[in-house]
Design goal:
single chain; alpha+beta; eight-stranded antiparallel beta sheet; elongated
Length: 158
């Protein structure tokens, strides 16, 4: 009985940590340079598993082969295309302030009810919706915008 009383607080702490990591926030490591100039790779960020996704948020998505960190460009029901290096969403040209490198043209894509169009900032090397297609909502694990490591880069990113 005495042993149970002694380890009880540690069990509670362990359960709280597991619940937080499972449902609220967890660390995620950036691999590669597909989000360069915003992210250089090897950063550790906080992945928030709750909250609404907004245009240009950085999200983490699972595919059959990989975990991607990309930026949201288009939402369910919208159309997106690139003509002459310019992004059009619902036939309206959008300022593409995050693109690093030229965006190659791609044909108009109409997103279904639960699909999002994601692109990496480093357009020349990014494997994203331009090549693998739209990402389903259930494959988006959450959004991220806060670097926790390296310590010299701690803080929010756009």
């Amino acid at each position: 009985m005495k042993l149970i009383k002694e380890i009880y607080p540690y069990i509670i702490i362990l359960l709280v940590v597991i619940l937080i990591r499972t449902f609220l926030v967890t660390p995620i490591k950036v691999h590669g340079t597909s989000m360069y100039n915003t992210l250089e790779g090897d950063e550790i960020m906080l992945l928030w598993k709750i909250g609404e996704i907004e245009r240009y948020d950085i999200v983490v998505a699972k595919t059959s082969n990989d975990t991607l960190i990309k930026r949201v460009y288009a939402f369910p029901g919208e159309t997106i295309e690139c003509k002459d290096g310019k992004i059009y969403i619902n036939d309206e040209m959008k300022e593409d302030q995050y693109a690093f490198g030229k965006t190659d043209d791609f044909a108009k894509v109409t997103l279904k009810e639960n699909e999002y169009f994601l692109m990496g900032d480093n357009r020349l090397v990014s494997l994203d919706s331009r090549k693998i297609g739209p990402i389903k909502k259930e494959n988006i694990e959450g959004k991220t915008s806060f670097i926790i490591f390296p310590f010299g880069k701690i803080g929010n990113v756009d």
